[in-house]
Every structure is written in C-alpha cells, then in structure tokens.
Amino acid sequence: MQELIDSYFADGKFEAKVQELNTLISNYVKEDSTAFCTYEEYQKAVKSLTTLGNLRAKSVQGQLEGTVPSTTAEQKVNSDKLISAGDLNIRDLGSMLGGKGGPPQGGLNGGNQFPRGNSLDMDIMQKAMRIIQDASGTISDEVKTKLRELGLNDEEISMFEHMKNMENTNNRPIPGRGNTSKNN
Predict the structure, then answer these.
(1) What are the residues whose beta carbons fall under 8 Å from the beta carbon of 158, sequence distance 6 or more?
(2) CA separation for the pair 83, 96 (Å, rounded)
(3) Torsion angle of alpha carbons 44, 46, 51, 55, nearest 10°?
(4) Is the CB of residue 53 less than 8 Å from the CB of residue 93?
(5) pLDDT, mean of each 10-residue run, the chain (184 residues)
(6) Which of 12, 87, 96, 179 is the most exposed place for a label (fewest CB within 10 A)?
(7) Helices 122-134 and 154-170 meet at what angle, rounded to 10?
C-alpha cells in the first residue's frame, strides 16, 4: 500500500492519469447527445474523482502511519481522527440511473432507466429487490401491490419487469437471486 501511495498518489501520477483520460474523452462527452450527464456534470465528476482519490490516499497513508483508525470499530470511536471529505459530494460522481435530470424519453436501452433518475432511494431499491427475490423473480399482482406499498409507482415497477425481461432475453441471472446460467 505504501508503494502505491508513494508511486501513484504522492508523486501526482493519479491526478495526471485522470487528466490524461479526461483529455482523451472530454470532447466526446461534450458532443454526445446520448450522454448520461451534461458536460458540466461530467466536469464536476472529474474534479470530484480526483479529490476523492487523493482523500482516500491521504486516509490510507494515515492508516499506515497509525494516525487514522483503520477498523470500523476504531473509526466509530475516533471519528475526529478521520480524514474530512470537506465539501466533496459523492453524488457529484454521478450515476447510471438517469443523468441530465432523468431518463430520456423511452428510457435508455429500450427503457432500462428508472423514472426518478438519481432520486430512487437505495434502501427502497434494495427492499424492492428483496420483495421480487422472495417471489422467485415473478412480478405478480401481489408483488406489484407490495412494491406500491413501498412507494414505487407503476412506471418504476415496469422497470423491474423490464429488467426481468432483459434477464430472460440475455439468459443472465439477476445478481443475488441465486439462479444460475450456462453463460455465467
């Protein structure tokens, strides 16, 4: 770990690599009418990625030196010794769940996009997946009722159905369901 910190972060290679990749693709992102985010969001994400990488390196360095707690238990007890993220907002790194304020008309990849875009709560998503998994992946009327009680609307429920249809089409299981496929 120390070698990684010394040879990649401390000497600026990480920032240089991010900038090199940014230089290679930024114009494509800027001109892409189907991009997942605006160019301004992309630029913010690049800056946030650089900040996040450097903060993580600083945290690891502190853990190696013993000045930053390295276990969850120690971090809970000594939170004042953690590396502050300052004004870094992890959401600035973006998401594949919408971009540009929500999904394009008809969704992405034939509708594979949640209508609320980035605002679909991860806890709700996990609970919804659990409901569907408990029903062996079948989205019956009873499952739809449970999903509505969870707060999902019909459009969002149809996205889960679309995901199921894609799984069947591609003969790929949804992770965590416990099903198998010869293509895995």
Answers:
(1) 111
(2) 28
(3) 130
(4) no
(5) 90 94 94 86 94 93 94 90 88 63 40 47 79 87 90 81 56 44 40
(6) 87
(7) 60
